[in-house]
Specification:
single chain; 192 residues; alpha/beta; Rossmann fold; two-stranded antiparallel ribbon; globular
Length: 192
């Protein structure tokens, strides 16, 4: 682990929460099959009241006035759910009205069909979220489903970008990608 870079007080508070509650060290096999000496369980941040407030404060700082251009927040279940629902709820107490939603892993049979669950509406401008990304594939899968539904993914964000490749994938799709934290912010190299 290397020396931590300087961050704003808001992002430093989020980083401290992630380091305390979400970073585990040891010997891990990642979803990709690669081995790593550290693992991120950022649901440990997103599912705690002080953590989701820190995430929301970071979203406000990172997105600023662009938040006013967003109608909805969500992404692929389960990684996006705590972040999308929590941020929408906290922002609602601050006068920012966002609808939240999830993209199911597969289409629901019977009742309401399709992969979108929640309050997303066709034509919405969307902030696509995920708790952690390494490669960005879950975010792009969500983007595909959101577009198929008739909404417009305009931004993507994660609590921590572990891999450093998602920005290129977002740029290829014309989506503005703004991670709240990246692996080097936590003292780790990308992809290790």
């Amino acid at each position: 682990m290397s020396e931590l870079p300087g961050l704003s007080p808001t992002l430093d508070r989020l980083r401290a929460h992630v380091l305390e509650h979400s970073v585990k060290t040891g010997d891990f096999v990642l979803k990709s099959g690669a081995r790593s000496s550290w693992f991120l369980d950022t649901k440990q941040t997103a599912c705690r009241s002080d953590g989701i407030i820190a995430v929301t404060d970071a979203i406000v700082e990172v997105f600023g006035d662009d938040l006013e251009t967003i109608d909805a927040i969500g992404g692929l279940t389960l990684g996006a759910d705590p972040m999308a629902y929590g941020v929408a709820a906290v922002l609602g107490t601050r006068g920012v009205d966002l609808r939240s939603f999830s993209v199911r892993k597969e289409a629901k049979q019977g009742g309401v069909t399709g992969r979108i669950a929640g309050a997303l509406q066709p034509g919405d401008r969307v902030l696509v979220t995920e708790d952690t990304t390494t490669r960005g594939t879950s975010l792009i899968e969500a983007v595909d489903q959101i577009e198929a539904f008739g909404a417009e993914p305009v931004f993507m964000s994660v609590i921590v970008d572990r891999g450093g490749t998602c920005g290129n994938m977002a740029a290829e799709r014309g989506i503005d990608y703004r991670p709240l934290l990246v692996a080097p912010d936590l003292g780790y190299d990308y992809g290790t």
